[in-house]
Write a structure and sequence with these properties.
- The chain is an alpha+beta fold.
- Helix content is about 55%, strand content about 10%.
- A 4-stranded antiparallel beta sheet has the order 1-2-4-3.
- Strand 1 and strand 2 form a beta hairpin.
- The longest helix is centred in the last third of the chain and has 37 residues.
- The chain starts with 12 loop residues before the first helix and ends in a 20-residue tail after the last helix.
């Protein structure tokens, strides 16, 4: 398998974490993002996977549906159509187990180091979720313990803990009025 650039360093944990998406209720990474991190082409990564198909059952990887692809494009601000992007098929999404299995089919030193970084990113995300749950549990306990005068404080803390609401993205470009079409 041809590597693009072996001298590149392994990406920072924050870069890897930003590439982890939630699709179908699973934390996944897209094949093109993984290929970029591993320093190989997406075609080479997918070819290695297809040669070892038995190692990648449905709970390790799946192909995005057209609706999931459209949603992913809108979240990543990709305005080009599939034809303009060069996508001939929907990308594959790899779960944490699928990414771990990639280390068995991509055997370069860089692939091993990147895989270690990706596993650390998944662990860090899990630990953050556990810490968030623990903080919520402690806050609930404190709220029961103290009287109503602190209710405003507890409500404010809960609001700070909530993720910001997702705003629908506006279309970019000129919109042709319907009466001129």
């Amino acid at each position: 398998m041809q590597e693009k650039n072996m001298t590149r360093s392994v990406p920072a944990l924050s870069i890897i974490e930003n590439r982890i998406l939630v699709i179908r209720g699973h934390k996944v990474m897209i094949d093109s993002h993984l290929a970029e991190l591993y320093g190989v082409t997406t075609a080479a990564l997918n070819q290695a996977v297809s040669r070892n198909k038995t190692r990648f059952p449905a709970d390790f990887m799946f192909q995005l549906t057209p609706a999931e692809l459209a949603n992913w494009r809108s979240q990543t601000v990709i305005s080009n159509s599939g034809a303009k992007m060069g996508l001939r098929r929907s990308p594959y999404a790899f779960t944490e187990q699928g990414i771990a299995m990639l280390s068995t089919v991509l055997r370069s030193k860089r692939a091993i180091q990147v895989n270690i970084g990706i596993m650390r990113a998944f662990v860090a995300m899990r630990e953050a979720m556990i810490a968030h749950k623990e903080l919520t549990r402690q806050l609930n306990g404190m709220e029961k313990k103290y009287d109503a005068q602190f209710k405003i404080v507890f409500d404010a803390i809960r609001q700070l803990m909530e993720p910001p609401p997702v705003q629908p993205k506006r279309s970019i470009g000129y919109i042709v009025p319907k009466d001129t079409q």
